[in-house]
Each structure stands twice: as structure tokens, then as C-alpha cells.
Design goal:
Elements lengths: L4 E2 L2 H21 L5 E7 L3 H17 L2 E7 L5 H13 L5 E4 L9 H7 L11 H8 L8 H14 L6 E5 L6 H10 L3 E5 L6 H5 L4 E4 L17 E4 L3 E5 L2 E5 L4 H4 L5 E2 L7 H33 L1
Helix pairs in contact: 1-10, 2-10, 6-7, 6-10
The chain binds NADPH dihydro-nicotinamide-adenine-dinucleotide phosphate.
NADPH dihydro-nicotinamide-adenine-dinucleotide phosphate binds next to α10.
Length: 300
């Protein structure tokens, strides 16, 4: 077997971000500057780091970023009010509420309040429904990033058997929908699945999104499989803390034809596709505004 390819997510993310930056410049020349508003409720240190990175990346792409940081005791009504104001603001194209939210706030109520056209995380049920119908909607960033890596590595995915391990709304389910849209035969495994290892061993493509360190090893994999490892797990090994995926990379490398590392695989893609979704949202809103202005003119 040829030497397996370690898929570099940093290079792929730089490609995506470079294209976004170029398209943002073109939009700016036409008088529109894409804008992303991020709401952070509370002071969870990990969330603060994620938000800071999103804001920095937006600025690098020429996207305006607005950061709204409110205390952990902020009421749900106030968060909904903030979203309402941002929904109404024509200069804001994307709205992101950093998860998780404090316990007294109902996450699904908040996500449903975002205008689906500005829902750059792709979590609103209108976008979730559209994705399951195979429509071109704003889809969640991590699975979209995984699809980019798969197409870049394999080209056409038609007819491949893809196994997705994990069925969360954020990764597993949208990942399966995107693979189906790309004409894969899709199997989803979850915590109640029987014979998971045997089923996984039939897959041409494995996407692991579980959150269990090093769960998938060579025994789970068919020779020549392509593995996308979404998991991010912190473990303590040999007295030091390090990040690992859901896949035991060292073991998997004896079987796979290509695999994403952790870190440096899927991670950088998520933020790159958040920027691309913001750009897409800005383009779509600008076009639909131009269309409705044109139809107003033709009526008057
Ligand atoms: P969730 O905890 O929401 O979902 C985990 C899924 O794994 C569930 O569907 C669960 O099944 C399934 N599962 C648990 N144990 C097993 C098992 N033994 N066999 C098969 N399936 C199992 O996690 P997320 O989807 O949010 O995230 C998954 C991982 O991806 C995490 O490590 C997270 O940190 C990472 N992540 C990485 C991102 C990135 O940018 N790289 C972005 C988002 C997440 P059930 O439904 O039955 O409980």
C-alpha cells in the first residue's frame, strides 16, 4: 500500500479563507461589507477563546465583526431582544450565538429566533430542514469543512459507503445529510448501535464525531479507507496534557489511505466555513434586496 496521506486542514482552511478574502474585496468594491455579529453570554474561558478566534479570523478576511458580550445572569428575553435588533439590521449579515448558553436560557428558543438567512451556524430548523431535503442552505460549518476535505482528497464521492459515528445535531446528522447529498451510501452509528466495529469496517469513508479519545483503531477500518476525525479530546499521557481525536492515528495509519490529524485537521476548517457562510449570507441578502427593489420599481 502507498504511504497514507495525512490531510492538512491548515492548508485547506487557508485556501478557503483566501477565496473568502478575495470575494469580500469584490463585494466591498460594490459597496457591501459582509458583517458577522457574535453574541457571547457568560464568561466560559473556552467560549471566550472561540469567540476571539472567530472575530480575529473575520477581521483577517475583511469581514466586519461585532462582538456582544453579556453577563451569565442575562435573561433569555434580553438575548432574544438582541437577536431581534440584529435580525432587523440590514448591515448585519450573519448572527452567531456562542454555545453553550447558561442553563436558564433555552438554546433551541434562542437558535430559532435567528433569521434563517443570517443563521451562519446552520442550526435554525428552516436550514436543518432544507439540508435534509438536499437544498442549498446555510449548513453547519464543521460538516461542511469535512466535505471540503473529502472532495479535495477523493474528488467525486458518488457511490462510496460512508459511516458517520455520532448523531449530534451539530456534526453527525448534518454530516450524514451532506454525504447523502453527495450520493454516498450513508450509515450512522451511535451509542446504541450494535456491531459498530463490524459496520465501520465496511466503510470507504469514516467520519468520527463522538468525543471519545482514540476509540477507533485499525480494527475498525477497511484497508484504504479515508478517515475524517472530528473529535477533540484532551487527555493526560505521560504526565502531560495533549489533544487527541476519536481515532487512534498511529494504529489507523497502518490501514487508511488518508486521514485528518488532531489537531490540525478538521479544527481549522470549522472557522474557515463560518467565514464562508457569512460571505454566502451577505451575497444572498444583497441579491434578494436588489430583487425586491427591482420588483418595487416595476410595480410603481
Ligand atoms: P455529542 O456529545 O453531541 O455527540 C456525540 C455522539 O457520539 C452522540 O450521537 C453519541 O450517541 C455518539 N456516541 C457516544 N458514544 C458512542 C459509542 N461508543 N459508539 C458510537 N457512538 C457513540 O458531540 P458532538 O457531535 O458535539 O462532538 C463530537 C466530537 O467532535 C467532540 O469531541 C467535539 O469536541 C468534537 N467537535 C469538533 C469540532 C471541530 O471543529 N473540530 C466541532 C464540533 C465538535 P448518542 O446520540 O446515542 O448519545
Amino acid at each position: 500500500m502507498n504511504c497514507p496521506l495525512v490531510i492538512d486542514g491548515k492548508i485547506a482552511a487557508a485556501e478557503v479563507l483566501g477565496q473568502v478574502k478575495h470575494d469580500v474585496e469584490v463585494m466591498k468594491a460594490d459597496g457591501v461589507r459582509p458583517c458577522l455579529a457574535v453574541i457571547l453570554v457568560g464568561d466560559d474561558p473556552a467560549s471566550e477563546v472561540y469567540v476571539r478566534n472567530k472575530v480575529l479570523r473575520a477581521e483577517e478576511c475583511g469581514i466586519t465583526s461585532l462582538e456582544y458580550k453579556v453577563g451569565s445572569d442575562t435573561s433569555q428575553a434580553h438575548v432574544l431582544h438582541m437577536i431581534e435588533v440584529l435580525n432587523e439590521d440590514a448591515a448585519v449579515h450573519g448572527i452567531l450565538v456562542q454555545l453553550p448558553l447558561p442553563k436558564h436560557i433555552d438554546e433551541s428558543v434562542v437558535l430559532q429566533a435567528i433569521n434563517p438567512q443570517k443563521d451562519v451556524d446552520g442550526f435554525h430548523s428552516e436550514n436543518v430542514g432544507g439540508l435534509s431535503q438536499g437544498l442549498d442552505v446555510l449548513a453547519p460549518c464543521t460538516p461542511t469543512g469535512c466535505m471540503y476535505l473529502l472532495h479535495k482528497t477523493l474528488g467525486d464521492l458518488s457511490g462510496k459507503h460512508a459511516v458517520v459515528i455520532g448523531r449530534s445535531n451539530i456534526v453527525g446528522k448534518p454530516m450524514a445529510a451532506l454525504l447523502l447529498k453527495a450520493n454516498c451510501t450513508v450509515t450512522i452509528l451511535h451509542s446504541r448501535s450494535e456491531r459498530a466495529e463490524t459496520i465501520c469496517r465496511q466503510a470507504d469513508i469514516v467520519v468520527a464525531a463522538v468525543g471519545r479519545p482514540l476509540m477507533v483503531d485499525a480494527d475498525w477500518l477497511k484497508p484504504g479507507a479515508i478517515v475524517i476525525d472530528v473529535g477533540i479530546n484532551r487527555i493526560n499521557a505521560g504526565g502531560r496534557s495533549r489533544l487527541v481525536g476519536d481515532v487512534d492515528m498511529e494504529s489507523a495509519l497502518t490501514k487508511v489511505s488518508a486521514i485528518t490529524p488532531v489537531p490540525g485537521g478538521v479544527g481549522p476548517m470549522t472557522i474557515a466555513f463560518l467565514m464562508r457562510n457569512t460571505l454566502t449570507a451577505a451575497k444572498q441578502q444583497t441579491q434578494s434586496r436588489a430583487k425586491s427593489e427591482a420588483s418595487c420599481l416595476s410595480i410603481s
